[in-house]
Design brief:
The structure holds two protein chains of two kinds. By secondary structure, chain A is mainly α. Chain A folds into two domains: 38 residues; 208 residues, MetI-like (MetI-like fold, Orthogonal Bundle). Chain A is 75% helix and 0% strand. In chain A, α4 crosses α8 and α9 crosses α10. The longest helix of chain A has 38 residues. Chain A starts with a helix and ends with a helix. Chain B is an all-alpha fold. Chain B has a domain of 205 residues: MetI-like (MetI-like fold, Orthogonal Bundle), CATH 1.10.3720.10. Chain B is built from 14 helices and two strands. Chain B has a two-stranded antiparallel sheet with strand order 1-2. In chain B, α2 packs across α14, α11 packs antiparallel against α14 and α13 packs antiparallel against α14. The termini of chain B are far apart. Classes of the chains: A mainly alpha, B mainly alpha. Chains A and B meet through α1, α4, α5, α6 and α10 of A and α2, α5, α6, α7 and α8 of B.
Amino acid sequence: MSSKREKRIKEKVCEIPVFVILLILALLVIVPVIWMTFSAFKPEKEIISWPPTFFPHVLTGQNFVDVQKRINILRYMLNSAIYAGGTTALAVIVNSMAGYAYAFYDFKGKSGLFLLTLATMMVPFQVIMVPLFLVVFKLGMYDSYWGLIIPRVVVAGSIFMMRAAFTGLPKELAEAARIDGLSEFGIFRKIMLPQVKPAIITLTILSVNGSWNDLLWPMIVTSSTEMRTLANGLALFIGQNTIEYGAAFAGALISLLPMFLLYIFGQKYFVEGMASSGLKG
Amino acid sequence: MKAFIKYWNKPSRCAYLFLAPSVILLILFSVIPLAAAFGLSPFDVPITMNTASFVGLANFIEAFHDERFLNSLKVTAVFTLLEVPLQVFGALVIAALLTKNNFRNKLFRAIYFLPVICSATAVGIMWKMILHPNIGFITAVLQTMGLGKINFLNTPGLTIFVVSFISLWRSFGISAIIYVTAIQQVSASLYEAAEMDGAGKIKQFFHITVPSIRPTFWYILMTRFAGALQIFDIIYITTNGGPNYTTESTVTYIYSRAFSSASSMGYASAMSVILFAIIMAVTVFMYRKMNKED
């Protein structure tokens, strides 16, 4: 009995260094984010004074005005919203239709098409970015919303996720609806799609997050200032050597806020989606 | 029209309609570009794309004599070997400490996961500023600790470590969460039995946790490896390959050769093909190793 108690005490003592390590890691994650958030509200004079402050001495909203003056950040936000919204809306439709077909229908060439989809998962985007740019250019979609959105709609991982969600549904459901005279598309839209709501929410959240944060594709496929997204416009802004620090802080914070909100409301879906499908590379 | 709808409403036929959009898009934007990457590599294509002259294997030969390309492979390898082992083993240890679903662990998990949802642009700007020689908070803290003023993102030899750290900072949360999910699925009776035998927590970790989550370990290792070999975002934002090309990864170099003023699409494609071959070789090698183990 006493050895058991000893062991318990030993475990409790071990808890302390474990907690300290976890806490240090958490601070390492959170402190830079807090510093950047504070800095976005400091006047430029305070930002460039040495040594730098952690808490702002003076609070100002000037940086948010400045960033709009230097780069048209409202336009970039609109572009990011169109890119994320357009890609996600189409992704939900197209990928769930494909997932449904693989889960519910038997047809010629099923395994071949499925294998093709599987194979595209193995092709890294970075490897095909140059010819992909050429394809989009030749299709006349360069520097347009279509060029941004259309090539990013189909994601093999999303098709698999939707297929897995649909596979769990009973086939009798479709049979009953068929007898009631519902068309095949009607069965899909009215009966089946509402049953896989969690999967659709997950797909939506991951797709919005992925395209909102995407840097490489907007860099490649857009050229005019009016077409820049937040991620790509800010990158080009800080890439120039003449830099207003306050504006950069404000811009970065603006780009993060919608994702923070999404994370607060959809943390469960974020974690489950990324953990199960590993969509993010 | 009615007959048309009736024809396509057969379950065996309408499957093709359901699949058509995704298959067309996949062919157009995945299959054709991949084929084109191989197809373009023996050509000389300028960015105007008006001409294409056949140069055979010249692009590949040029690549292996191109100091900057060889350097970029080295940088990518160093980055991968720094980032991936720390990520796959570090995240496993963290996950083992956070398995229980209590409030404290849930809070830590939520914090660690936070950088995963942030864009590389914002994360890059944040670290660029906090490590900045003139305005950086960490730079100042380390200076007061007597370490001198370190220029983290502009010191050859040091900067590649810093970039690897930032990349690790951004993505360890996702690996940790995937491990947590896997560890939670290990049967509790295994741990109870070990407890009865008097095995401590550390012994349990090595004898139960590690063997039980093998498939997850391999999954994370393979995806992280493939991801690290394609590193671009964080480097582009924080250093853009500098100082003096010491952090120029292969994708960063391919990007600059394909889309800058001195553009050569054919040459960039040839380098992409080489990178693809490396990624596939590593993945297949690991896949074989994994299957041998089981």
